[in-house]
Amino acid sequence: METRIFRGVPLRMKQDGWWLDAPKTTGQGKQMRRKHDGMKAGLLITLIATGDLLVWQAVPAISFALLALVIVMAGLALAWPRLGMQARVGIASGAVLSVLPLIELVQPLSVLIALCGLTGCVVALAGLSRGDLLRGGLRLWWVAPLHSAQSGIKTAGQLGNDRPGPFDIRAFVMAWALPLGTTVVFALLFIGANPVLDRIFANLAEWQVPAPNMWRLWFWIALAAMIWPVLAAWGMRERLRARRPVRSTVRRQGIINAESVARSLVAFNALFAVQTGMDILFLYGDAGLPDGITAATYAHRGAYPLLVTALLAGLFAVLARPHLAGRPVLRWLMLLWLAQTLALVAASVWRLDTYVDIYGLTRLRLAAYVWMGLVASGLCIVVWQVWRDYPAAWMLLRGGALAAAVLYVCAFVSFDAAIARHNLSRHTDPDTFALCGLSEDVVPAMTARFGANWSAECVSSYRVPRVFQPNDWREWGFRNWRVRRSLANMTQTATAP
User: Fold this and answer.
1) Which residue has better confidence, 144 or 281?
2) Tens of pLDDT along 250-272?
3) Residue 149, number of CB atoms within 10 A of its CB
């Protein structure tokens, strides 16, 4: 008989064959598994009840953050024996940092931060290493529903297999016919002889079970779908950690090569030099603009296109960096071009600042300030990467961390309040119509400028910001609390003798 030797293990078996090393399940193991599953089911019901108490029919506020934190902590308690101390501390601190923006204000940015942070916490609960966190986080969104469905089907099948045998109707009748029948007869006799029991029985007969609220049932189902993957995170670790095989391919020369990079850098430097020279003449110098072009028009036309130009320049620098190795001339041309790109970003900030001084601040213009600062910082990282000849992963890691930190800080900043303070303090005739279209954060600045009757400055009654008053503690928000406290302090100052 010929013996065949298969070298290597198929990928699917690598990913799904982890059970081969698992110990055999004994009677005691089955009992422990059943006890663990029962504890998870009880915890699921408890968390659903907690979510109903915190979130149901409540305006999104601190209650959402508390519910997310409680769910992650429950998952951490289940996975506690399997995790190291460093992983425990990281998951707990990551969950707290993820929900802090929700406590400040529930808005799209804070919800996005919470989703990303809590996704990382759930992946860490599965026992994945740092190198697998990003891959596991991306896979979680389709692995979790699939795993939850399979887990439910498997649990139902185990419950069916654990039945002692078929239901014996004859044995049930022989065991319960006499006690149940005689008990019913005696109960009817007592009800006929006792008017108090008769009244109680009549009231019970008239009592109707209230129909369930279908929206609330769907809410419970949605809560269960979100909670169960957190409790069963450890069971998903093999699917979340699955890696694709590395295939060796021959890299062909593309449109980005050493020759094309060299020609591009020469052309880019010459073109950027023209724009930089014109900015020096018209923005920083005293050269007069052509007829029909004002300083505001020149500033506004160039602010956003130059920002896009800087982004494209940074992308090209990242793609072209591998072709700079061993070519000092190309390296210096790249550094010169990046320096000119930084000068363009500075010119964009100057243009935007000039335009804001004339026409005021808006959400888009304030966001442009933030993005220009972020682009400038990213270009500095790229310059340092080219100078020190670091790999692209070094730049991507630091650039991504910088962007995440900026977005996280922005979640705690009230842009509407900053816009109102700037426009009302630096302009004698501010655009109150635009301010009235913002959120409640502008009310303190409007009150400080126009007094208690500031709403008269709003042209349309449909564009008057209203300060939200929470009905209970579940609807409390830190930013809303600051607005209400500022208005209360203004009222006390105005009424003080």
Assistant:
1) 144
2) 455 567 777 788 888 888 888 88
3) 11
Say what the pLDDT of residue 21 is.
46
The pTM (predicted TM-score) of the whole model is: 0.76
pLDDT of residue 19: 44
The mean-pLDDT minimum among 285-289, 304-308, 314-318 falls in: 285-289
> Which of 78, 89, 129 has its CA nearest to residue 233?
78
